Amino acid sequence: MKGTISVCCFVSLLLLQATAEEEDFTSVLRDRSHIDETLRLATEEKAADYAAAIQRLRKIYHTSIKPMEQAYKYNELRQHEISDGEITSKPMVLFLGPWSVGKSSMINYLLGLNDSPYQLYTGAEPTTSEFTVIMHGEKIRSVEGIVMAADSSRSFSPLEKFGQNFLEKLIGIEMPHKLLERVTFVDTPGIIENRKQQERGYPFNDVCQWFIDRADLIFVVFDPTKLDVGLELEMLFRQLKGRESQIRIILNKADNLVTQDLMRVYGALFWSLAPLINVTEPPRVYVSSFWPYDYAPDTSRDLFKREEISLLEDLNQVIENRMENKIAFIRQHGIRVRIHGLLVDRYVQTFKEKMSFFSDPELVFKEIVDDPDKFYIFKSILAKTNVSKFDLPNRDAYRDFFGINPVTNFKPLASQCSYIGGCLLDKIEKAITNELPALLSSINSGKQPGLSSCEATGCGEKPKNRYRKN
User: How far apart are CA 100 and CA 116, in angstroms?
Assistant: First the structure.
């Protein structure tokens, strides 16, 4: 009996000692000075040059791209309307991944919010049920989703289309912080594979796609205990296709494993993700522990520190190149709008050519839209213009597009000209080939972006429509 009591007392003492050592370990905070150094938060930005470039970009978009976008209802094809808030917004960093892998803890660590009254709530159970946008503000306050969607100066007004149930699950947090002056973080609900999407009360995948389309950097976070890929995570990776250059995969909580187990987990993660990422080069995986406390003893702390600095350098690259990325995004958008305008114009011309006095307009256009290759709709665009076949949209999308917008509602491009305003096609081509590249060059060379020579002096030439048939 005495022996049993002695053993129990000994085990209790060991447990108390282990608990005390764990508390001592978790109470040691990690040095954060490398975060400020890598992200260069102490350096002042050239706010005037950045503001001038943004204003120039807005002017190019509104005068050269948006007129064609509105004339041919591009937004009804792509469901992506660019607002002034989106043009002027900061780079967006999106955090995705399974539940309780450390997404919120990582944001707390990067912003130094640990043990502060406004840190994001974390825990071993699923804790984040909302889409949380952490952004810069003059004071610390929370912003409801309905307020964010109603504010046209922000870039979140299009989120109203996902319904009131979603807006109740959207929250913004504003705070004064050097890093948030340059970037916006978005924390998302963790993926729970045993929960059906419809139980969320809003279209979760559609909302994720909205944020994915606008994110400059996407962190997909895993931990050693959640490497399995279910249906919802598989759907998420389908939505990420085409955005591989923005994806960074993070194996978090790596200091919970010894080196040998960490190598096995690293291989298992690649094995799980290999069928989901169809790229020739493997994705970049960062292995570390992103939270404010010191690394566990007897682990590869030097490796973890280097991995963390590499990730911060990636983040800093996005911040440094934010203006270039915006110009490239607007130019890509302009190319898509131009292709859409050319295609609608071709549909309109073909419809008018095939119509006769006794023809039924609905039957004629149904034949055209059902088999556009028969009438060389897409091939004629490739032959007449410098459009890549890889940029052409899906043919079936135009069947739905013209089902909502009758072809008779659109004018040919040749008639979309005015003496003062010029031609829609000429303006958008000038923006794509001259104005936006010139703005990009002025940013890279550090010059103040100014007006083009024609805008400064007034060329006074009558606009020419190169697409008009002679």
Answer: 20
* Cβ count within 10 A of residue 421: 12
Asked if residue 407 lies in contact with residue 370, where contact means CB atoms within 8 angstroms, the answer is: no
Beta bridge partners of 96: 220
Instruction: Write out pLDDT tens, residues 36-95.
Output: 999 988 887 666 778 899 999 999 999 999 999 999 999 888 767 788 888 989 999 999
Structure tokens at 253: 């909580």
Give the residue from 280, 187, 276, 298 showing the smallest Cα distance to 227: 276
Q: Note the pTM of the prediction, 2 decimals.
A: 0.80
SS3 category, 290: coil
Residue closest to 297 by CA, chosen among 95, 21, 4, 100: 21
CA distance 28 to 292: 9
The token pair that represents 299 in the structure block: 């682990």
d(CA 93, CA 307): 18
CA-based nearest residue to 423, from 466, 380, 460: 466
Is 184 within 8 Å of 315 (Cβ atoms)?
A: no
Q: Which one, of 466, 398, 397, lies nearest residue 428 by Cα? A: 466
Q: Each residue of 87-146: pLDDT tens digit?
A: 989 999 999 998 888 899 999 999 988 877 777 877 555 556 789 999 999 999 999 999
Distance CA 363, CA 375 (A): 15
Asked whether the CA dihedral 365, 369, 375, 378 is positive or negative, the reply is positive
Which among 379, 386, 388, 353 has a CA at the least distance from the CA of 367? 353
Encode pLDDT of 373-392 as tens digits.
Answer: 898 998 888 876 678 888 88
Smallest CA-to-CA distance from 52 within 323, 397, 335 is with 323
C-alpha closest to that of 289 among 48, 26, 45: 26
For 251, list phi and psi in degrees, rounded to 5: -95, 100
* Token code pair at residue 44: 């002042």
What is the phi-psi region of residue 385: left when phi exceeds 0, alpha when psi lies from -120 to 50, beta otherwise? beta
Q: Are 399 and 365 in contact (CB under 8 A)?
A: no
* Calpha distance 320→171 (Å, rounded): 27
Report phi then psi at 47, rounded to 5: -65, -35
Q: How far is CA 468 from CA 374, 387, 415, 424, in A?
A: 23, 18, 9, 12
- Concatenating the DSSP letter of every residue in 291-336 gives SSBPPPTTS-HHHHHHHHHHHHHHHHHHHHTHHHHHHHHHHHHHHH
